[in-house]
Amino acid sequence: MTELGDYLRSCRAKVSAADAGLPSTGHRRVPGLRREELAMLAGVSVDYIVRLEQGRAKTASPEILQALAQALDLRPDEQEYLFRCAADAKGPAARASPAPPDAQRVSTATRVLLDSMTAVPALVLGRRMDIIGWNTLGAALFTDFSVLAPQHRNHIRLAFLDQRVRSLYRDCETVAKECVAYLRMDAGRYPQDPALARLVGELSMKDEDFRHWWSTHRVRAQRSGRKHFLHPTAGELSLDFQVLDVRGTTDQTLLVYTAEPNSRSAQALAFLSGWTRTTREEPAARLTSHHPRS
């Protein structure tokens, strides 16, 4: 079996005959399109679909992949993953990207940008959704990343294994599913990444839901949306997020959360910002009071 075969079977299972405009006749032992139905829609032979799914066909032309993507009604990010899986099936020489280097560093310019963003929570994400940079309000929204071991500063790991972070989300199950889909997308870019393999292995061992959702091969590369939080200090927040590429870097994105102007969430975010500044200033004030000037 190959990743391409697994992904095709997963996509086929998610499309009903009615969705594809086909009559739903006869008893179906498994959900989704039959192989012969996908073959007809894509204009290829049933044997070719079988060989693709079983990993016996090592090549697929861009035209065939596009036809399969159209038949399965794949989104652009899902199409990208399909093409990457097909490239990986051809062998190491055809892969879109090699295994990434281990080092992920935030540049000085990006660090200055983060520190200047005092009114919005912001994180810098690297490969595997590693959290490699954050600003003060980002730490206040989620957790104090500085006290975590570097290998534990990972967005998806926190979403599954850190109860404090899980409890922040009003719908933690949906967030966790989305995280798995993002990670699966990353796996398509770097199938030989040993750090990603270790992360998937750890989460698969420790969380049954992760194992199930990882096996569905759902992929996602959402760049914007809304998250709903229940923060222990700020209360309820509905924040819009945007994922922005950090120019001049490889696989680094800036994740920024904002609130609608004049909304309750904007007030709560402003309160959290003020509370954070106060808690940071108090230790310095106490230290100064213990050492009065002569």
Q: Notable features of this structure?
A:
five-stranded antiparallel β-sheet; 13 helices; 294 residues; alpha+beta
Structure explained in plain terms:
- By secondary structure, this protein is an alpha+beta fold.
- It contains 13 helices and five strands.
- Strands 2-1-5-4-3 form a five-stranded antiparallel β-sheet.
- The C terminus is likely disordered.
How is this fold's topology laid out?
Layout: H1 3-13, H2 35-42, H3 46-53, H4 62-71, H5 76-89, H6 108-116, E1 122-125, E2 131-134, H7 136-141, H8 155-161, H9 163-166, H10 172-189, H11 194-206, H12 208-215, E3 224-231, E4 235-245, E5 253-258, H13 264-290
Antiparallel strand pairs: 1-2, 1-5, 3-4, 4-5
**Helix proportion range:** 40-55%
How many helices? The count is: 13
The profile of the biggest β sheet is: 5 strands, antiparallel
SSE-based structural type: alpha+beta
How far do the termini sit from each other?
A: 77 Å
What's the Cα radius of gyration? Answer: 23 Å
Mean pLDDT: 86
In sequence order, what are the helices and strands, one letter per element? HHHHHHEEHHHHHHEEEH
User: Which ranges are low-confidence, i.e. pLDDT below 50, for 5 or more consecutive residues?
Assistant: 92-96, 283-294
The share of residues in extended strands comes to: 5-15%
Apparent shape: elongated
Strands ordered across the widest β-sheet:
2-1-5-4-3
Strand elements, count: 5
- In terms of quaternary structure, the protein is single chain
